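Thread: quick sanity check before group meeting

JM: Hey all, I'm pulling together slides for Thursday and realized we never actually wrote out the predicted structure for the chain we discussed last week. Dropping the sequence here so it's in one place. If anyone has concerns about the input, flag it before I start.
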Amino acid sequence: MTTAPITIRHLAYSDLPRVIAIERRAFPTPWSLAMFVLELSKPLGVCLVAVEHHRDEARSRLLGYLICSRYDEAWHLMNIAIDPPLRRRGLGTALLREMLERGGPDGPYTLEVRTSNAPAIALYERFGFRPAGTRPRYYRDTGEDAMIMWRTAPAPSRTGAPGQPHSEQ
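JM (edit): ok, ran it. Output follows.
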């Protein structure tokens, strides 16, 4: 990663072309533009992007995104992706931390994750998510099972590393 500042902010409709580009690089079965528009149109949701800023605004780039929807009394993490060459640099951690701040740390959260995605499972466990079941053959592209994870209580507090991305409205 560069030394350019990184911020976490609300995902805007104007970000969608760059979000779709990352989505296509990150997943074998990417979401459609309509799916993103639907999530952005919901009044209760946390939709975020991580952006690297440069003095020359044309060089600023979107690094990753997160979509979390509110259903009844629980939050559902629907989609999170970091541009593949930029993974394992703390961006997913920053997005999840901001999701919990905006959605409320005490509320219940749920998600599905591929059972083979050990790095993602480890990340979610660091935030207090725990396995709660399986959805057999959930992923249509491979027939792989999804692990259902829930976070029902705040995770133990941990101090952030220096240089962590900061948030802006």
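AS: nice. Residues 43 and 149 are 24 Å apart (CA to CA). The chain has four helices and eight strands.
JM: adding both to the slides.
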